[in-house]
Automatic annotation (TrEMBL):
Cleaved signal peptide residues: 1-32
Protein name: Polysaccharide deacetylase family protein
Organism, scientific name: Streptodolium elevatio
Pfam family, any one: Polysacc_deac_1
GO MF, any single term: hydrolase activity
UniProt keywords, alphabetically: Hydrolase, Signal
Top-rank lineage group of the source organism: Bacteria
Biased composition regions of type Pro residues, renumbered to the chain: 68-79
Matching InterPro entries: Glyco_hydro/deAcase_b/a-brl, NODB_dom, Polysacc_deacetylase_ArnD
Length: 280
């Protein structure tokens, strides 16, 4: 009869030990989590970030990266945290979509894009190249005057940003900000977008240090390849859903097809019930 209480005592001791171990583990886990550095207060990454295809623009003047180049992020390895926002960020009800135009400002095409947007009363985001902003400050002023949002796309459309030092990254971004502000002093530039889709966590952190959030996309029209307007429309049909961000180009080369695509795209999306927004 005396065996049972001894067994109970052993069992209770084991339970107490297990509880102490679990508490210790939980405290350790919580402290490890809170000790993790928080370098950015931006939005949480969406699922689209992981599957986002790289943008590789082959036709921008002065860029020699071949169209087949792959970004470092495409190589296998541990998944790194991302500060990248790829969707509109709108959480209020609505079928939202955002138009974004890269590599401008550009003679001919930027005014045409602005004209179409104005016709429909749509606000978009322009990811401008610093050297282009410096050369065409009047177009930066027009983009701002029409109420569009600006995004920093580096000074020289540097598609190898992840290989640069933090100082070089910062210089590419700061010089672009300076070129924009020479045209329109003090205008907000809330976004950064990596040329060629060459993202890295460090690039995003440097952008964040300059108070810019990183802007990706969910629909890549690949318009810079000039695939034909029908093909570009098919791409949008297959990739766009509510909250989507569409990537197009108003600069970097001949953008006749991009402009023509935009003329068809806007009325079609409006007919489908989409509302246009800038990313928030
Ligand atoms: Zn670009």
């Amino acid at each position: 009869m005396s065996v049972v209480p001894v067994r109970n005592a052993s069992f209770q001791a084991a339970v107490v030990l297990l509880a102490v171990f679990l508490c210790g583990f939980l405290v350790w886990t919580a402290s490890a989590d809170t000790a993790a550095p928080r370098t950015h207060a931006g939005p949480r990454p969406t699922q689209d970030d992981a599957g986002q295809p790289p943008e590789v623009e082959g036709s921008f003047e002065g860029v020699t990266t071949p169209p087949t180049a792959q970004p470092p992020a495409a190589t296998p390895g541990p998944k790194v945290p991302t500060l990248l926002q790829s969707k509109t960020g709108r959480t209020d009800p609505g079928k939202w979509v955002a138009l974004t135009f890269d590599d401008g400002p550009w003679n001919t095409y930027t005014p045409q894009v602005l004209g179409i947007l104005k016709q429909y009363g749509i606000k978009a985001t322009f990811c401008v190249v610093g050297n282009q902003a410096k050369a065409l400050p009047g177009q930066i002023r027009e983009i701002v005057a029409q109420g569009h949002t600006l995004c920093n796309h580096t000074m020289s459309h540097d598609t190898e940003m992840p290989t640069r030092t933090p100082e070089e990254m910062r210089a590419q971004m700061q010089q672009t900000l300076d070129a924009i502000h020479a045209a329109v002093p003090g205008v907000p530039v809330p976004w950064y977008r990596a040329p060629g889709g060459m993202w890295s966590v460090q690039v995003q952190e440097v952008a964040a240090s300059l108070e810019m959030r990183s802007l990706g996309w969910t629909v890549d029209t690949l318009d810079w390849r000039k695939p034909g307007v029908d093909k570009m429309m098919q791409t949008v049909h297959s990739q766009l859903g509510p909250g989507g961000v569409i990537l197009m180009h108003d600069g970097g080369g001949d953008r006749t097809q991009s402009v023509e695509c935009l003329r068809r795209l806007i009325p079609e999306l409006l007919a489908q019930g989409y509302q246009f927004t800038v990313p928030v």
